[in-house]
Amino acid sequence: MKTIKKMFEHLNWANQLILETLQNAETDEKHLSLFSHILYSEQVWLTRLKGMDTSQMPIWSDGDITVCANLIKENEENFKTLLEELVKTGLDNLITYTNSSGKEFKTSIRDILTHVALHGQYHRGQINSRLRVDGFEPVNIDYITFVR
Predict the structure, then answer these.
(1) Where does the signal peptide begin and end (predicted)?
(2) Number of domains in the chain
(3) Is 37 among the annotated ligand-binding positions?
(4) CATH of the domain at 25
C-alpha cells in the first residue's frame, strides 16, 4: 500500500506540473485533449472502483484548462479517500466492471491502481513530446525527480 500511495502522490505532482506548464504556454487543443483524457480516465476508474456504472462518462472530451484544474483537485481528493479506505479492505480484491466497449472484466484493485498511475505517465509523456515539437521545454515529471 505504501508504494501505491507514493505512486499517487507522484501522479498528483506530475498532473500539477503539466497543468502549470499548459497554463503558461500557448498550447493547442491536442495538449489539452491528452491532458483531459488522463483526468477523465482517472474519474472513470474511481467510479469503477466504487462499483458504479461508467457507461455514460467521457474518456475523451474537449479540453479546457479550467476543467482540468478542477478535475485534478477532485481526483486527488477522491483517490486519497479511496486509498485510506483500501487500507482496511485490501488491494487484492477483484472488482467487476464494464469497459468503454461494453466488455466485462474482473481485475484486482492493485492492478487497476497501478494501471491508473502508469496510464497517466504514458500520456504526460505524449504531452511532453508535443510540447518539445511546438518549441516548449518539456516538463521533468520523472519519478526520481519527484522523490528527490
Answers:
(1) none
(2) 1
(3) yes
(4) 1.20.120.450
